[in-house]
Design brief:
Length: 230
């Protein structure tokens, strides 16, 4: 799996944000609901990368009790965007100390439901690597969660790998091996922020069907291993 933990069929994934929110000393000023939404987006995509569906969400809120409702609303929003039922959401808030900057971690617990197919796949980049203000300015280029989930459920997509701050090239080497070289008509060495793009593995006989389904911002990824191309 990617960055989560698997324990006896349970999959645990997490993402966090610090210094991002509505407090005066935050490094990045952003609505608290939006901050929680993007943290939840990463954790949800990592659940799918592990073949899991989340059954519960834990929120670690270091910002204060006043931010809880906004954080919860952001998490609920990401599930609605993915056309999913909202699972149970629990957690705790720091109420003993007044913090000067915002901080939140979102942890999802799910059960593995799908097994990976790793061989014989054609890989694609879906979405654009975006970070910061570009995420909001180019919303249409952010990988659509509803489409990804539908493609997984229908069998169009056999494997998914979300891209984070290290960029496509670094994540691809984690997936395909340290000596792999990758090529695509997108920037490979820039941050994708809150998993604005993902790598999708598709069976070769269904590539045309999958390309039609996703439409824009769906680019082939050429993978060359040390002993040839895949």
């Amino acid at each position: 799996m990617r960055n989560g933990i698997e324990l006896d069929g349970w999959v645990i994934t997490s993402d966090n944000s610090a210094g991002i929110g509505g407090k005066e000393l935050d490094e990045v000023n952003a609505p608290d609901q939006l901050t929680a939404k993007f943290a939840a987006r990463v954790a949800l995509l990592e659940q799918w990368a592990a073949g899991s569906e989340p059954e519960a969400v834990l929120v670690h809120n270091f910002s204060g009790d006043a931010q809880w409702a906004s954080y919860k609303a952001g998490i609920e929003e990401i599930f609605r965007e993915a056309d999913m039922d909202v699972p149970q959401i629990g957690g705790s808030s720091e109420t003993n100390m007044a913090t000067l900057q915002s901080g939140i971690a979102v942890t999802m617990l799910g059960r593995q439901q799908r097994h990976f197919v790793s061989e014989g796949l054609q890989w694609y980049v879906y979405g654009k690597p975006l970070v910061g203000e570009a995420v909001l300015a180019q919303k249409e280029a952010v990988a659509d969660l509803k489409k990804i989930r539908a493609a997984i459920q229908s069998g169009l997509v056999k494997r998914i790998w979300p891209i984070g701050s290290k960029g496509i090239e670094a994540e691809a080497r984690q997936l395909f091996g340290a000596t792999a070289a990758v090529f695509a008509d997108v920037q490979l060495d820039v941050s994708a922020g809150p998993a604005c793009c993902v790598l999708l593995g598709v069976e070769t006989e269904r590539t045309k069907e999958t390309a039609l389904f996703f439409g824009k911002f769906f680019e082939p990824l050429i993978v060359e291993r040390e002993k040839g191309s895949v």
